Amino acid sequence: MVRKIFIVICYIISHCFYRVRTEGYENIPKDGAAIICGNHVHLFDAISFVVHLKKRMIYVMAKAELFESKFGNWLFTHVGAFPVSRGKGDVAAVNTAIHHLEQGDLLLIFPEGTRNGLAKGQKFKKGAAYMAIQNKVPIVPIAFAGSFKFMHKVFVRVGKPIDVTPYLSDDGEVDVKKVIELTKVLQEEVIKLRDAN
Questions:
Q1: Three state DSSP letters for the chain
Q2: How confident is the model at residue 135 (pLDDT cuts 50, 70, 90)?
Q3: Cα 112 from Cα 123, distance rounded (Å)
Q4: Cα(154)–Cα(107) distance, integer angstroms
């Protein structure tokens, strides 16, 4: 119930405060596990993506700072987010993410690890690609473009799923070189979506 109310409120905000436009939502798998990955430009970008995903629940890996207050912890937990301590090798967060993938859920991760990482010249972190290969699930690239300023256009673009089969090793182990390769492909796809006319 909390999630539904939160989604409705945020949906209204996304169209009253911002002019959100969505593209490619048909590319999101209708069932089965998948990792959704994109650039991170604003606090509201994850919300603007989730509120338009009407037919599936999605779980979001979010920075631990959002859960520090009792209200924040209560709210974000109820809407499907779970905390990750950035830069600390958070095993608990990784285990939670893997659990959701094993349950056939959708998982949203921002591989930049911070806002506007790409704009600052940072490369995607390899965790999402590693989990995708390890769990044999597709990665769906998404991108946010535009300005989260009052009544400005914001584009939420969803690309076609990236099949991880070519990145699997014959021995069943995760090959670091394949992880790096997949991370590069993912980053390139996100940039293409971000910069699309």
A1: CHHHHHHHHHHHHHHHCCEEEEECHHHCCCCCCEEEEECCCCCCHHHHHHCCCCCCCEEEEEEHHHHCCHHHHHHHHHCCEEEECCCCCCHHHHHHHHHHHHCCCEEEECCCCCCCCCCCCCCCCCHHHHHHHHHCCCEEEEEEEECCCCCCEEEEEECCCECCHHHCCCCCCCCHHHHHHHHHHHHHHHHHHHHCC
A2: very high
A3: 7
A4: 22
Please state, in angstroms and as integers, the Cα–Cα distance from residue 32 to each residue in 56, 58, 99, 102, 147, following that order. 10, 12, 13, 9, 32
- Please give the share of the chain, as a percent, with pLDDT higher than 70: 99
Give the C-alpha separation, 143 to 156, whole Å. Answer: 6
In angstroms, the first-to-last Cα distance of the chain is 38
Phi-psi map region of 89: left, alpha, beta (phi>0 left; psi -120 to 50 alpha): left
Domain extent listing, the chain: 2-195
| pLDDT, tens digit, 9 for 90 and up, residues 60-69 | 998 889 899 9
Residues 36/41/47/53 CA torsion (nearest 10 deg):
-40
Quick one: tokens of 109? 């991760």
- Topology (CATH) of 2-195: Glycerol-3-phosphate (1)-acyltransferase (3.40.1130)
Read off the amino acid at residue 123: K
Q: Cα–Cα distance between 81 and 151 in angstroms, integer?
A: 27
